[in-house]
Specification:
mainly alpha
Amino acid sequence: MKSEYDFSQTESGKFYHSDAKFHDPIYLEPDVEEFLTKMAEHKKIDIQVLVNEWLRNTMKLI
């Protein structure tokens, strides 16, 4: 690593996007992940699709 860097030619905010959306990662316990993975494989869909379907159905019940 250099002892000094020259940032005089950089552009401030070049990569900033005010409309950027960030997604929160969700960490599943191993038993839950195993169950959901098996269900998604059985239905031949991605686990993300399965989880979103289940959560939307639960939201409707609430």
